[in-house]
Design brief:
Structural class: alpha/beta
Number of domains: 2
Shape: elongated
Strand order of the largest sheet: 11-10-9-12-13-14
Number of helices: 11
Distance between the termini: 49 Å
Largest sheet: 6 strands, mixed
Oligomer: single chain
Helix content: 25-40%
Radius of gyration: 23 Å
Strand content: 15-25%
Order of helices and strands: HHEEEHHHHEEEHHHEEEHEEHEEE
Number of strands: 14
Length: 386
């Protein structure tokens, strides 16, 4: 059977067996492309090499189509921005493949999977995995990330930017329209599949996130902070991480990221689980992004200010003094009085407090345990899950 007929057959099988994927795959035009070794997707079309398709089983073709649908539902063709295309491809595959495999799909042999990343946003995964090796060795094959997680296998498709094949989606307005259409179509497909009792359990949280029109706050924070990797060693402050092993090693810091201020609302109204999650994300960001950083603990007044470098903080170091009311003004007054010029300020809070009258000149990100209120300035990222 020729490749195009096999593709058509498995699209029909998705409609009959997996209505969530079946409804969505019908939104994508199928295009034969002999110049591509395997397959690709760009949010509008799925391209495939017919010779490669002929080597796959029916189940693998079905898995390939579902895989491309997941890229589109996650808006991966639209969210790459400045990132390396090959590395973004690996991150996006690691984000969706676990969900598909746990839902019973069979993917082409060697598909990338690391359980540590299952269901995580591609932006966060991108910040944790190493830069890609040359395609000659296969994307992602056997590479080990900075936290000891390995991405074994290879990516069997390319995520292309919309319009790369002159499909017409060129302007930002066009792209915004297509993205919104994908969000709506994903929610509608999930609703129909759920009513039919055929929505895979692993998709529930993903669909809720799409319905909310936002991704996990950790991913958005990383997207904002993910900058140039550390490129300088400093012996001025030895890394705490290795001291317990009897090793005195230099800490490593970025010479390009600039100062980042992490401020914690330590008032009595803050949920301890949110504080723990926020602290863990702050520690992780310091290790991965390696900026110069200041930590401010504040309720109605500044309780403590710390200067920290990568390796200074550990996940179990959580000790946030406070417990009183909430006033954000002392945070900004302290930044001004110290003469700091931060690249950005990240504040973990429930937003129940007093704000400054004037917006500062630097970017401010509010990680808010509150999905009903927005800060009067800066970017407010509601906490969806911890």
């Amino acid at each position: 059977m020729i490749a195009s007929k096999r593709i058509t057959k498995e699209r029909v099988q998705l409609v009959l067996r997996e209505p969530f994927f079946g409804r969505l795959v019908l939104r994508l035009e199928m295009v034969e492309d002999g110049s591509q070794p395997t397959g690709w997707v760009n949010g509008l079309k799925i391209g495939y090499n017919p010779d490669w398709i002929d080597k796959l089983s029916d189940e693998e073709i079905r898995g390939f189509l579902a895989h491309e649908v997941m890229h589109c539902s996650n808006l991966h063709p639209f969210r790459r921005e400045w990132r390396n295309p090959d590395k973004w491809n690996v991150a996006a595959d690691l984000s969706v493949n676990g969900i598909l495999l746990d839902s019973g799909f069979k993917l082409p042999e060697g598909a990338l999977r690391d359980r540590a990343f299952d269901g995580d946003a591609a932006e966060r995964i991108y910040s944790l995995i190493p830069d890609p090796e040359s395609k000659q060795g296969g994307r992602g094959q056997g590479k080990k990330g900075p936290k000891g997680v390995s991405a074994t296998g290879e990516s069997f498709d390319d995520i292309r930017d919309p319009g790369q094949d002159k499909s017409g989606a060129q302007s930002s307005g066009d792209l915004e329209t297509i993205m919104e259409e994908w969000r709506e179509a994903t929610v509608q497909a999930a609703t129909a599949a759920r009513k039919a009792g055929k929505l895979p359990g692993g998709l529930d949280r993903f669909v809720r996130r799409v319905a909310a029109g936002r991704v996990d706050w950790r991913s958005l924070l990383r997207q904002f902070l993910d900058q140039v990797r550390a490129s300088d060693y400093s012996w001025s402050r030895p890394s705490r991480r290795h001291i317990s092993s009897g090793l005195i090693l230099p800490s490593m810091r970025s010479i390009e990221t600039g100062l980042i201020v992490f401020a914690f609302d330590t008032s009595g109204s803050m949920d301890e689980r949110i504080l723990k999650a926020s602290w863990g994300e702050c520690v992780s960001a310091l290790e991965d992004i390696r900026p110069e950083a200041k930590l401010i603990m504040c309720d109605s007044r500044v309780q403590r200010v710390d200067s920290v470098e990568p390796g200074d903080l550990l996940p179990d170091d959580l000790n946030l003094p406070g417990g009183g009311g909430t006033d954000f003004r002392p945070i900004f007054k302290r930044i001004e009085s110290e003469g700091w010029s931060p690249a950005c300020v990240v504040i973990f809070t429930d937003l129940d407090g007093n704000f400054p009258d004037l917006e500062p000149a630097y970017p401010v990100i509010w990680i808010a345990d509150n999905d009903r209120t927005r800060a009067p300035f800066g970017i407010t990222l509601p906490v969806l899950a911890v």
